[in-house]
């Protein structure tokens, strides 16, 4: 690969999985998180995405001093492997208290659990020297509309964002929208919703978005336009590049594996905006195929990174003068043919 690149790549340890899905258990032997750190650099990655309990497993039973001690151990492991923690996200969908949502649960004690857990997540992030908190609002939504007061729910999410900004004056919050799964209808389904929350918050400069390609596609939207919207407001904290084959469960397929042109346009929009030049990562959130043999299975990550770099080469070799001529002439038929031939390597 000859392309010079200034991009840095990240993934979360959950991306190296044992292959369990809702219909079957693990198909590969368990591979502990600590051992995954040694794999990052050789695969071409330097950023680690975390859930709070990826850093401190069993954290609900820990006191603040224990949380800090465990997180500090992980900080050392990362440093020893030349790795940077990109973000920490509170896992607000596993505990019994989050069955009906977290910040928007109808139960006051469950909402309190969610807030306590969020503070612990911020403490863990700070112990790792990481300032970004990702909010994937997994269960903030409903299966039936009448179950919750949606207006109140949006107010509660905003109150939580403000409380987080107040709890730690240095963190940034990156909201990762997703329209469905596990809920039927999520309250923050698109980047537009996330950015509205940002501007409504007490410090919008610290509230941004993280756009996952598959999540945008599940909302029926084009990921590159979602990214462009965030970039136009200087609010793209990070991305989760992957792919999605139609409106079904969240597939987290290899980047570009389902739709190469959609992938091309994401890379084009990021590259044209200078994304990454302030240290932003190209984050991946990709599931290995359950059918893949071996342990640990990592080809989906190195392959998606390679595909990104190949597509980047395509973006960088577009004849922009020609594109401008086609735009000026409003000849989008010719523009489409040019782009398709360029992608296929046809002269
Ligand atoms: C869920 C998803 C999460 C977030 C982090 O669909 O993408 O893994 O990226 O919580
Ligand atoms: Mn994601």
Automatic annotation (TrEMBL):
Family designation: Belongs to the xylose isomerase family.
Tagged with keyword Manganese: yes
Organism from which the protein derives: Prosthecobacter fusiformis
Enzyme class label: isomerase
Any one cellular-component term (Gene Ontology): cytoplasm
One of the GO biological process terms: D-xylose metabolic process
The protein's name in its UniProt record: Xylose isomerase
Annotated Xylose isomerase-like TIM barrel domain residues: 39-261
An annotated Gene Ontology molecular function: metal ion binding
Gene3D superfamilies: Divalent-metal-dependent TIM barrel enzymes (3.20.20.150)
Location relative to the cell: Cytoplasm
InterPro entries named among the record's database cross-references: L-rhamnose_isomerase, Xyl_isomerase-like_sf, Xyl_isomerase-like_TIM-brl, Xylose_isomerase
EC number(s) given by UniProt: 5.3.1.5
Complex and partners: Homotetramer.
Catalytic activity: alpha-D-xylose = alpha-D-xylulofuranose
Keywords associated with the record: Carbohydrate metabolism, Cytoplasm, Isomerase, Manganese, Metal-binding, Xylose metabolism
PANTHER family per the UniProt record, alphabetical: L-RHAMNOSE ISOMERASE
